[in-house]
Amino acid sequence: MSEATELSDSTSTTRWSHRVTTPLREFLRTEAGSAGVLVAAIVAALLWANLADGSYESFWETPVSLRFGGEGIELGLREWVNSGLMTLFFLVVGLEARREFDLGDLRDRRRFVLPALAGAAGMVLPIGIFLAFNHGGPGAAGWGAAMSTDTALALGLLALVGRNVPVQARLFLVTVSVVDDVVALIVIAVAYSEEFHLMPLLLAAAVYGFTLLLVRAGVRSGFIYLPFCLVIWGATLQSGVDPVVSGLAIGLAAAAYTPARGELEQASDLFRSFREQPTAELARFARIGVLRSLSPNDRLTRTWSGVSSYLIVPLFGLANAGIVIHGDFLGQALMSSVTVGIFLAYVVGKPIAITGVSALVTRLSGGRIRPGAGWASVLGTGTIAGMGFTVSFLIANLALEEPQLSEAKLGLLLGIVASSVVTWAVFFVTSRLPKPRKAVALLGDVDELTDLIPEVDPDRDHVRGPAEASVTLVEYGDFQCPYCGRAEPTVRELMTDDDLRYVWRHLPLTDVHPQAQLAAQAAEAAGLQGQFWEMHDLLIDRQEHLRIADLIAYAGELGLDQDRFHADMMQPICKDHITADLESADLSGVSGTPTFFINGRRHYGAYDVATLKEAIRVARVRAKIAAKRR
């Protein structure tokens, strides 16, 4: 067993290999993993409704009230789930939308145009198909139930039926769904609010505006915002607008950004004070300092994403998916215009709209605006988008009465099954294509956004490997960082690839590694005598011995002129190179080590051998596609 494999099996390295994640990748994993729980909840609801002799409806219609003095709110148990807990679900949706705009591909606003149009068309065409079957009929009011994709369920089933689907396809689905969810919430607020009262809505808007001022003023304590959020929810409920809208609005207000190095250093200082004098007060300051270094979006996402995906959405499924299925109902429902309309709206309308509009925009723009994924991925995104659940059931409950309500739910459930089968077929056929065509079909040929600033300069950067390599791996590292030491065997194994070049940039974290700066200067001084990489390897291997005497001894071990080495260490030329690397780390949003970039794109997630090899493989394929296009 190799050293890298042994490391990946250890407890410490398990923690190490998963410590660097992006909220979006975490969101994708959470949503995909929760799909199984949601499916189980749907099955449980169906069994409960059909085997428990009416107890399903009686339980979820149980009234529950909250009262303060003479005032209060009374809702049925199902309404508390649909209008109360689901507010937190839409909070997570809003957080994801804001995160994509601040940190994701949508920070290039031009990349929002195509998925926005595809998402809008993916709602309009299904509504048109539904109304073609139901216009003027008793189910026409349920048109809103035919438009919205369930992101969590779609991502989860995409992971199951479309194995090895590139992350670009999932990101395209998320981007389309952001538009989908925002428009759906507007539809709920405008079209499915019963008794509209202006004053409570104005109160909600005023309090929301005040919270935005608090955000702008830099107030970060969640306890300060909590009462304002509760007032927004309650006022929205009293206005007659479905209060789940408030969750989306609050989520969109939470900015997303990577932790600043200065704030992390301040957090380290606070922890160091607590370490020297472990009092309750200093412990509180240290905790606040660590939390303040994270963006509000990150803190809220990590708090509510798992709760939303693994508890709230499955509970919503349990409360709403139960329909009584018997022979008479099934025969009638399968021929019902509501069931057929919703089924075709999702299974036919969604993929035609999303794929067709994407192709049309690409053609009309001459290819300047095109999907961030290949056309097979776009088609697979369109087919898997043909499943409505969360918002669709929410609207169906607001708009329809029995038997149309049960018919709509049946159409939605059948659509989930059919969309999964069609998506599997799309990716199965794609997998049979020749490798070059399959790569383009899945990944596409759009240029990826570059996260690395500035790009690699062989005349300035320390580069290992062939200059003509198609893939460049950049590491921001700290010679005293134990995680960099654990990553080094992985890097050395990767360097056996003769089509890979490797670049080291300094990021000494002096607040936690006091000897890191001198070690970086030692590497630069060795570089002035032509042995940067030899010194680099020694420093990484001997991280626990980086005192000045150790560094000079290493110079002698490498056969360097020790007097010159010691003098060069203190020269501006060495310090300036490190300062330039620190500036590039700040520009690239890097605050911790090790951080990797592959062909200019930041690598998120684990950095074990298998994960990095796969990321390098995908980067190489994309580089070949780009070379052919040029």
From TrEMBL:
Primary role: Na(+)/H(+) antiporter that extrudes sodium in exchange for external protons.
Catalytic activity: Na(+)(in) + 2 H(+)(out) = Na(+)(out) + 2 H(+)(in)
Keywords noted in UniProt: Antiport, Cell membrane, Ion transport, Membrane, Sodium, Sodium transport, Transmembrane, Transmembrane helix, Transport
SUPFAM superfamilies reported for this sequence: Thioredoxin-like
UniProt family annotation: Belongs to the NhaA Na(+)/H(+) (TC 2.A.33) antiporter family.
Subcellular location(s) per record: Cell inner membrane; Cell membrane
Gene name per UniProt: nhaA
Protein name: Na(+)/H(+) antiporter NhaA
Major subcellular site: membrane
Positions of the Thioredoxin domain: 441-621
Domain of life of the source: Bacteria
